[in-house]
Every structure is written in C-alpha cells, then in structure tokens.
Amino acid sequence: MEEQLLSLSKITRSFGAIHALKEVSFDVMPGEVMGLVGENGAGKSSLVKIIGGFDSGYTGQLTFANKQVRFSGPVMAERAGIAIAQQELSLIPTMSVAENVLLVGDNVPKIATKRQLIKLVEPFLSEVGLDYIDPATSVERLSVGERHLVEVARLIAHDPQLLILDEPTAALGETDSIRILEMVERLVKRGKSVIYVSHRLDEIFKICDRITILRDGRSVAVKNTKGLSVSELVNSMLGRELENMFPKRISTSSKTPLLKVRDLWPDGLLDPVDLDIFPGEILGLAGQLGSGTGEILSAIAGAHPIRGGSLEMDGNVFMPKTPNEAIKAKIAYCSEDRKHDGLFLGRPIIENLTSTALKRIGNFGILQPSAENGLANDIAKGFTIDNSRLPSEAGVLSGGNQQKVALGKWLAISPKVILVNEPTRGVDVGARAEIYQTLHKLAKKGTAIVIASTDLQEIANLPTRIIAFYRGLKVSELGYREVSAENILTQITDPFGAAKLER
Amino acid sequence: MSPISEPINQLPKPSILEKLIQRHSKLAIALLAIFIVVFVYGMVTAPNFLTLFNFKTIIRDAALVGIMAIGLTFVTLSGNFFLLSMKETAALCIIAFATGMASGWGFELSFLFTMVFALIAGISQGALIGIGGNPIVVTLGAAGVLYGLGAYWSDNLVVSYRRPHGAEWLGTGSFLGLPNITVAFILIAISAELLLRKTSFGRQVYLIGANRAAGRATGHENFWMAIKVCTIASVCSAFVAIAFSAQVSSAQVNYFSSEFGSSGDMTIMVIATVMVGGNSIMGGFGSTLRSSLGAVFISTVDNMMVLHGFNSGPRVFAVGLMIVFSIIVFAILRRGSRSEE
Questions:
Q1: Does A243 reside within a domain?
Q2: In A445-494, which residue ranges form alpha helices assigned H by DSSP?
C-alpha cells in the first residue's frame, strides 16, 4: 500500500465550549485530488487552517511526509511543502504579475531586473495555464479568474507537495472555473497532491479522486468518487434526505407584464435591453461573468450608471437614479457581494432585517421596538433564520445564513419586484434549498423575481424562463419547455457556434 | 426546519471574571488592571479629590469639550471620520456672538445670528463630504476659511461686552447648585443618546457608518447623512462658543486654539475625547454616551494631576497616553468580542 502524504487523526479543535472539529480523520495520498465537502459551519475552514499552520490550538496528530508535525505558523507549513490558496486573494493589484508571483520565498533573488523576473516566472505561469499573458502586466488589469491563477502560480513557485484550494471558483464564471480545473489536473499529473474545498458538486465530481465529507465538525465519510451518486453525497453531507433541491418549476400564469424595461442601456452592455417581467414568475438571466446580467439588475435598481432607458410599472414611466428611488417603487435588489453592500456585518441581525424599512417600524421618526421585533420575527420565520439569534451581529453568521439575512431584509418593503444577482454564491446546500423554496413561495404570491446567475445548475432549474446573455449582448430567450443545462451552456459560452468554426 | 443551526454554547454560564478572561486577551485585562491601580492610587492620595465640590468641578470642566465631542461623535459614528474644523467653527461663531452682544442685540438674537453661521458651516462641509470629498481634506480647508473669516472680521482683536448682559445665566448661572453649562452638558448628552438609540435618524447613523455601500443599497444615502451630522457637529461647536463667550463676556478668534483644556487645542481635545470613549474610528460602533464619559474621564485624570501639582507638560503627556491606551484596549476588546468564524 502506498504511503500517505498527509494524514490527520483524531483532530479536535474547540473554542471555549464550542467544538469546531471533533476527532476528525483525514488523509491525502501523493498525486491525489481529495475533495473536502460539507455544509457551511461543518468545519472545512477550521480543518484547512490547521493543515496550513494558521491554527495550532488543536489536539490530535498531524503527519506530513512521514513526519509527525505541529505547525506553529503558516511559514512553517509552507517550508514543509504545504501551500494554501485562500478565498480572499493576497495579491498586490498595482504590481506586475511577475512581481506578485515572486513576492516572497527563499528562491527569490534579492536583486533582479524586470527581465530576469519575467524569465523566472514563465514556467510557473505556463503551469497554471497563463502563458498567454505578459508577466509585466499589472495584476489589476487581469480578470478575477486570472488573478486566482496568478495566486496559484505564486504558491507553485515554492514547489509545494500539497496544494490546498479553498473555494477557488466561488467568485468565478464558467470558463475561468474550467481553467482552474485544468490547472489542477496538470498539477496532479506532475505528482502533486491537491485538497479541493468547494460547494460546487459538479466540480468535485469532475476532478476529485476521493471525497471527505464533514458534518457538524466530524468526518463522517471518505468516499471514492467513482460509483458515487450526487444524491448519495448530498445525503451524507446533510445527514438526511434532501427531498428536492429545486421546487417544482412555475409556469407563468399572468399575461400582462408587471414591469416593462425599455431601452435600458447600462454601462458595460453593447446594446440597450428590453425586458418584460411578469408577476409570479422567476425570470433567469443566464450569462457568464462579464456578460452584463449583473449590470442589468443593478441598473434597474438605480445602482449602476446607464446611458438611457426607462421602466414602466402600473402605468408610471420612471427611471430610478438611486437605490432609494427604486425602493420607493418597491423594487428590491440584492447584489452578488453581500459583504460589500448586502449586509451591515457589525450590526445586529435584527437591524439588518429592518434596515430597508425604517419608516415602517417608526412613528414620526421614533423607532417602535415592538413593531421592529414583529417585522424581524416575521421575516426570520419566512427565511428560516433562527430568531433567538436576532440580537447578535450579522458578521458571526455562516455564509448561508448571511445570505438569508441579505435577501430577507427586502421582505420588509413588501417588494413587487425582487432582483437577485447570484442568489446562492458561497452558500451551502441546505441553505441553498431554503433560499430556492422562499423565492418560489414569493413568486407564487405574485412577486416578480429576476435572478442572474453563473451557477448552471441553479439557472437551469429554478427559473420559469431564461434570457441568455453573451459578452454584453442578449442572445436568446428560452421558454419554460426549452430550458435545459446543455441549452443554456451553449447559449452563454458559444451562442454563435464560433468554437466549431475554429476547429 | 433549520438545519443550519451553528453550535451554540450550552454549558452553564461561567462567572463574569471567567468569561472576561475567556473572551478577552490577557494583555487587555492586564492593561486595564494597571490603569485601575494607578487611577485608584491617584484618587485616594490626591488632596481634596473625593469631595462633592471637586466632583462638580470635574463635570464643569468636561462640559465644553464634552458637548463638542458629542457633536463630533455623530460624524464619526456615521463613518465620516472627523471634522478638523471644530475649533475654527467655534472661533467664527464666538466672534459672531460677541459682535451681536456688543452691538446690543441681546442674547436671543445674537444666539440665532451665531447659529446661522454654524448652519452654513455645517451644511456646506457636509455637502462637500457627502458628494465624496475626503472629510480630512474638506474640513482642513474649511478650517482655514472659517478661522480666516473670524480673524478678518474681528481684526484679531478681543471683542468684549459689558456685564450685566443677557448671556450671563448661561455662562455663570447655576441651577440646583449645578452650573448651567453642566446642566446643558447633561441634557445634551441625554438627548443625543436618545436621538441615536430611539429614532430612525440614529439608526441610519449606525447603518451608514457600519457599511456605507450597504446603506446606499438600502436607501440611506450618505449625502444627506453627511449634511445632517456635520450640521449637528457645527451647532454643538457654536453652542460651546456661545457658552464660553458668556463666561468671559468677550471673544477672540484664538480662544479655542490656546490656553484651553490641557492640550491647548480644542479640535485635538475633542477628537481625543471621542477616541478615549472607545468609539470606532471607522464608524458604526460607539455612542455619544461613550464620548460624554470620555470627556468626564479625561477631565478626571486632568483634575487629579492638577491636585497632585503637575504642570501642563505632564498633563498634555497624560492625555496623549490616554488616547494611545484607549485605542489599544478598545481594539483588543472589540476583536475579542467577535466570535471565531
């Protein structure tokens, strides 16, 4: 039998009375891709922190390359040959790619000309599939996906034995994600081991040899990917049967549009867009990163600069210039980045939930605590947020619960239209299903819901109908019956059949 | 159905001391302990410190800085950092008030006249900050303009008016044994705290301060907020200017620049007070109560040192030390209170 590269046994980590990890066992073989999955709060991040040397306050044994070790800091782990690509990038935007890749490390020359640096980084860049970019470009001019690849190139420059990728594709579109996956395959071919942490089960299935499942801080199972079914995996992640992730699709009933978008031309799109949004439907805007779907939603909500256009609702023609004006028209908009503009992380959850409707909980400017509690409890119930946690800071919630709060706060204005960009980014399976149920329920009550998403599974299964966008251009509309993942994928990646022409 | 329940502490609650040690770093507790020892020692050994009269003195000394700090706290809490023009606003306003009084307009009219200047100063600075101007740069510029106007208007001379005059009740009068300026401080402190905690406006201050982008997305624009909080700060400055002028029956443009408070510069003292109170410099966390207590606290230490016979050098040093100290302690405490994600 082959020797394990990394093996953890009976790892326990507690914070006060809270057990983040309980007797977790975990191992990685040389040249293997090990998937690490689990709901938010299952302990994935805690485990990754321990392996990476960010956290040494655990009990249990950690063996790496046949040596029992305990890393007292990330530098030690790095020396031993473990590298972590974190979700938050640590690149310096104004510096060049070459400088970023060779920012730190033992093999970096103390003094070097730009040309020397460029020569040095070339092998690392080609390793991650970035050989087409000029190493002298500054990082801020790269796409988000390319930045992730640069980050990995920097880690590879230290020649690690084990690379940990923590949600590498969470912020990426389909094509960028594919590049990350290709890079992983290349690394594994060269005998490196990879721990791949992700919520995206399709990716996990595509590249992992084995999958470790964490639940409530315990390692519940290690499975071979071959012969494993998605539902089997999801069930052991949740510890229960997930009946249906997606509710039954709504076939729209209304014939008169609730909101007519006319000649809306948000900055970043090639052409003005017309949309009819019907009450009671879930409209999906499909497209990759850079397709302009997010810009359309934020423009409707008055949060994105436009060149022109108007909205028509209930006979009124208007165009909100600020989010406040959109809110007055009962249009709610949830951006893709909840930490940036979706949540007040340092404030209590209750204040987050009522932040959109201070008028509703006030009387001549005086806040009415009973009204506020009532409203917040109603929303919490609708979004399955534990209402005993309402007074605690929103920042302590897990990603899934944060997203529920970010969405839930809009129920306070009783919206007619809800626009959601990436409704479940960085959200675990359980919370995801709950968010879908809630959106579905709202649509059933007559609210018009528009989602923009780069998650193929989501965009293929949730909406009533779909409009596909490609690089700032509206390419097609798919009705209730034509919606399928394959159809959508073609529309958003290669609508004009260009790829076939080239071959 | 809530499968996303995260682990919650279900053990019996530990004692307060245990909790303190568990939740906060030992460094913070050690710093606090050292401070408490020094503070108590100073209190007990200072002659005449523990008398009712001295206590009243402390509050009265805290009042002027405290009122301005309360005004500035709104700006800081709303995430608009600091106004560096606090003392210059007061400087222009004190000239305006004294000119009014010297011209025989009476208290009420002079008061309103002064407030007009405060409103203009507050609204214009607020609007500039609201459209995206950096608060430091905007108010640094405004400081020059306001001070320059005051100096030009008064020719750098002392504007004085004779007793008896209509403002004496505010400057030297008292109510139930407390100086009226102390009463004003207490009333302003209470109403500011109520404004923050109980009104939609106060809630907006916290929300915008906690996350300006999210504030905008939920319909709370910083433009109007900046105008409102800058106006509050300017009005507080003007009020302090009026009260001070009423005490000394005169005005000069540099009254707030020197020989005032222990560090000599009103703006610095006011900012120090906000910070010693433990308000978050980035906004979204804190309260005017904290600033009020900060003012009383600084005043207490200052008073203690005066009673021990220290001259102004060590006292300025102490104020500086308190700022550094409070920043460290509050930073550690705040970090410790956040649960691990």
A1: no
A2: 456-461, 485-493
Whether the Cβ atoms of residue A213 and residue A223 lie closer than 8 Å to each other: yes
- Sorted by where each starts, the structural domains of chain B and their CATH numbers stand as 53-336 (1.10.3470)
Which secondary-structure segment (H or E) carries A213? strand A210-215
What does the block give as tokens for A151?
A: 């980050």
Mutate to test the interface with B, among A50, A199, A344, A352 (most CBs of B within 10 A): A344
Cis-peptide, bond into residue B14, ω within 30° of zero: no
- By Cβ distance, the residue of B5, B10, B217 closest to A323 is B217
**Which chain A residues are Cβ-neighbours of B284 within 8 angstroms?**
344, 346-347
User: Which residue numbers in chain B have pLDDT < 70?
Assistant: 1-28, 258-264, 334-341
Distance CA A192, CA A186 (A): 9
Is residue B207 within 8 Å of B214, Cβ to Cβ? yes
CA distance A206 to A264: 39
C-alpha angle B53-B59-B62 in degrees, rounded to nearest 5: 140
CA distance A182 to A69: 31
Do A335 and A465 sit in the same domain of this protein? yes
d(Cα A180, Cα A178) in Å, to the nearest integer? Answer: 5
Length of chain A: 503
Give the residue from chain B lying closest to A242, CA to CA. Answer: B3
Hey, CA dihedral for A138, A143, A144, A149, is it positive or negative? negative
Distance of CA A141 to the CA centre of its chain: 22
* Nearest-5° Cα angle at A89, A85 to A91: 110
In the three-class reduction of DSSP (H, G, I as helix; E, B as strand; rest coil), residue A311 is classed as: strand
- Report the domain count for chain A: 2
Size (chain B), residues: 341
Mean of per-residue pLDDT scores for chain A: 87
Q: What is the pTM of this model?
A: 0.80
Report the alpha-carbon distance of residue A479 to residue A465 in Å, rounded.
Answer: 5
Q: Give yes or no for A428 touching B (CB within 8 A).
A: yes
Better pLDDT: A291 or B180: B180
| Interface touch A359/B200, C-beta < 8 Å | yes
Residue A362, domain member (yes or no): no
Please enumerate in sequence order all residues whose Cβ is within 8 A of that of B148, keeping only pairs 6 or more positions apart, or say none.
Answer: none
Kindly provide the residue ranges of all beta strands, DSSP E only, lying in chain B, ordered along the sequence. Answer: 159-160, 174-175, 178-179, 250-251
Decide if B206 and A347 are in contact by the 8 Å CB cutoff.
yes
Max CA pair span of chain B: 76
Nearest CB to B6 within list A340, A359, A398: A398
Average pLDDT rounded to a whole number, residues A77-102? 85
- DSSP symbol at A489: H
| Bridge partner residues of A282 (DSSP) | A449
Does the CA dihedral B197-B200-B206-B209 come out positive or negative? Answer: negative
| pLDDT on residue A500 | 45
A460 versus A253: which is more confidently predicted? A460
Q: Pseudo-torsion of CA B279, B284, B289, B290, nearest 10°? A: -10
What span, in angstroms and rounded, lies between the C-alpha atoms of B29 and A37? 39
Residues contacting residue A212 through CB under 8 Å, at least 6 positions apart: A26, A34, A35, A36, A37, A219, A221, A222
The DSSP symbol for B264 reads S
Together in a domain, A216 and A282: no
Residue A326 belongs to domain with CATH number = 3.40.50.300
Strand order in the sheet with A33-37: A82-85, A162-166, A193-197, A33-37, A210-215, A218-224
Q: Are A15 and B284 inside 8 Å of each other by CB?
A: no
- DSSP helix/strand/coil, A14: strand
Is the same domain home to A216 and A297? no
Answer for the pair A267, A305: CB distance below 8 angstroms, yes or no: yes
